[in-house]
Amino acid sequence: MKARTVVISGASSGIGLATARRFAEAGDHVVNLDLAEPAPQDAVGQWIHTDVTDWAGVRRTVDTVVRERGSVDVVIANAGISLRRTFVEMTEKDIRQLMDINVMGVMALWQAAARHMIEARGGVLLATASTNGSAGYPYYADYNASKAAVLALCRSLALELAPHVRTACVSPGYVMTPMQRAEYTDEMFAEVNAKIPANRHADPAEIAEAFFFLASDSARFVTGQQLIVDGGELAGGTASAHGTVFA
């Protein structure tokens, strides 16, 4: 398989970094769009300082990549944020910032890439969604809404860009990333593990494998879908086994 140009937002750490490593190991040219420069030991491919909330800037960056590389073959909109708090504690500013990154950032990157993929009559648009987009989770109302929006976007564009450009999302359950671990006390970490049928969090590398599959020819008939990687979390409704604001 010839080397592809793979653009990933938020690839300086966590799921994005693991995904960048997986594609680079396969010989693909990886472009990491992130505000944060990766640590020296985490440098994979080419890093371009990018704010996904800067719509025009994202388009210029993608245009530059295509001009330098000749094409953009796979785009993974992975950049995102979350913050644990009750709905009534959320501020308008915080919600708008989250939506700007988690929804508008995906749309900006996908649109910039889609323009080139339509012309080339080929390409794959992927994004990091979440089990939160398919089930209710207290304390993450804005995050849940943002991931549901990404899933809706994925389904819509699968129809609009068919048959040459595919779309898909990976919807992880609990993944042990620095962002996730920072939200836990040790007691919360153990409690969450106990609610997951697999009895553990996923490793980011396991999510990376899902992206690699969806970008491959093995998934050439997969579009408009989400691949849920959650250790059985949603299978029995365990996602909703949480307290309420009145507890």
Automatic annotation (TrEMBL):
Taxonomy, superkingdom: Bacteria
Alphabetized UniProt keyword annotations: Oxidoreductase
Q: Which Pfam families match?
A: adh_short_C2
Which residue windows are transmembrane per the record? Answer: none
Gene3D superfamilies, per the entry: NAD(P)-binding Rossmann-like Domain (3.40.50.720)
State whether keyword Oxidoreductase applies. yes
InterPro entries the record matches:
NAD(P)-bd_dom_sf (IPR036291), Sc_DH/Rdtase_CS (IPR020904), SDR_fam (IPR002347)
Q: Quick check: keyword Oxidoreductase in the entry?
A: yes
Which family does the similarity line name? Answer: Belongs to the short-chain dehydrogenases/reductases (SDR) family.
Protein name in the entry: Glucose 1-dehydrogenase
